[in-house]
Amino acid sequence: MFAFVSRRTASMLPRMGVRAKHTLPELPYSYGALEPAISGQIMEVHHAKHHQTYVNGLNNFETQTAEALAKGDVKKAISLQRGLNFNGGGHINHSLFWKNLAPTSQGGGQLDSGELRTAIDRDFGGLEEMKSKFNAALAGIQGSGWGWLGYHAESGRLDIITTANQDPLVSHTPIIGVDAWEHAFYLQYKNDKATYFKNIWNVINFEEAEKRLVAAKQ
């Protein structure tokens, strides 16, 4: 995901000032707009604190990596990749996640007819069957991670995949992602994550998911 560049190119980065810093994306709704499925308190902490931490970490690790490569210190650059992956994945995953949600007043939880519904019916036997399999996969995550509905370009089908920690989904195009970290639900649901997994479908932005699927198939 984060490819190394040549020493000559890396040495030019600070001088040219070409690396723009990552920033926290604004939400397309208010913190309390997803209640009662997700509380405003959780959304504010999750977005303003947790996601901001990943943004800060990504910027920091990118700067350190560029400096190490500029000095020809490949060993140091390699040692930074774990932090770069974790914080970069956190930024990528959460940026997708916010757009993945919508208030019920704006269509959240509603899957209309279209390519996504057709694919879900074909690959899972219907929306409720897909939700059941998806939530079972989420429940099976040991520790922290993400659940994904992804489109596999080679097979042309939808699959349910889980990734650990903040690893981004790279084998498929992410269509729907659900954060299974405790910070996504604990303030509201405590240890009842199964209810969080059930209720989040009430605010899933299926319209956005449809757009992702259509774009992935082009």
Structure overview:
By secondary structure, the protein is mostly helical. It has nine helices and three strands; from the N terminus they run ααααααβββααα. It has helices spanning about 5-15, 40-70, 75-80, 80-100, 115-125, 125-140, 185-190, 195-200, 205-215, and strands at about 145-150, 155-165, 175-180. It has a three-stranded antiparallel beta sheet, with helices on both faces. It is globular, with a radius of gyration of 19 Å.
Query: What global shape is seen?
Result: globular
How much helix, percentage-wise, in residues? 40-55%
**What's the number of extended β-strand segments?**
3
Separate helix tally? 9
Mean pLDDT: 93
Using only CA atoms, what is the Rg? 19 Å
Taking pLDDT < 50 over at least 5 consecutive residues as the criterion, the unreliable ranges are 1-17
**Spatial order of the strands forming the largest sheet:** 2-1-3
- Give the DSSP E fraction (strand runs of 2 or more residues): 5-15%
- Largest sheet, described in full? 3 strands, antiparallel
Overview in brief:
Helices cover 51% and strands 11% of the residues. The chain has helices at 7-16, 40-70, 74-79, 81-99, 115-124, 127-139, 186-189, 193-199, 206-216; strands at 145-152, 157-164, 173-179.
What are the salient characteristics of this protein?
disordered N terminus, single chain, 51% helix, mainly alpha, 218 residues, three-stranded antiparallel sheet
